[in-house]
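agent> fetching stored inputs for the ribose-5-phosphate docking request
agent> found them:
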Amino acid sequence: MALAYSKKPTTTTTGIMPSPPQLLLTQDDLKKIAAYKAVEFVESGMVLGLGTGSTAKHAIDRIGELLQQGKLTNIIGIPTSKKTHEQALSLGIPLSDLETHPVLDLAIDGADEVDPHMNLVKGRGGSLLREKMIEGCCKKFIVIVDATKLVDYIGGSGLALPVEIVPFCWRFTAEKLRSLFKHAGCVAKLRVVGENGEPYVTDNGNYVVDLYFEKDIGDLVAAGDAMLRLAGVVEHGMFIDMATTLIVAGELGVTVKNKC
Ligand SMILES: O=C[C@H](O)[C@H](O)[C@H](O)COP(=O)(O)O
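agent> prediction call returned; pasting tokens
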């Protein structure tokens, strides 16, 4: 599937590293391979956006390791979640924030879906708002995924498109979101956790509504703008035209594609 993506005019394949043929790699192995490849783009002195999730975690571990070995120096990390903040602190990565460093050299993060134009779904881990704020300020944004994340269109996995909303009258906002996309067979579900089904609360004190679609929602920019016009919506999980580089690890190897 990854190779088909290189035919799109907006991207170029800049490198393929065949995997050892007899190794059976797990999905987590593939995430780690993509993450380590991305860290090759990190240079000493950079201000880095540190992503969130099981794939980004490998990249942050690797950055910490290279710092400890003295192979990277003067790195400043801007974490995209409380969890990543804790991980980076534990690894001794110096941290800052957008107010002190409003322009970042590079961000590395995972994604839940990647379409053929390198548009993304993010936020199934709940961190979409801080991720979008930080990754929107980067000169370069490398997305790292295993090949299972590639989809033909946004929503095409059948899994959630997360939307962060304010808790106030959340049912009202969820219904407004569902109505926006009724043409696409949308189902809107509040994300819940624990045995009692308590609302999931983001790092920003908000709730998440997960949207599921039966069909392609079409124009992503129009869909995103329509969601943001709803007063209870804080941010949606579509990252449109933000990724500059996509690294995909699959059974056939690793592909690195740059947006033209
Ligand atoms: O909120 C979570 C983030 O957007 C993650 O980057 C995304 O969910 C991918 O996570 P993972 O690497 O664990 O699949």
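agent> quick read of the result: Confidence is low (pLDDT under 50) at residues 1-10.
agent> awaiting further instructions
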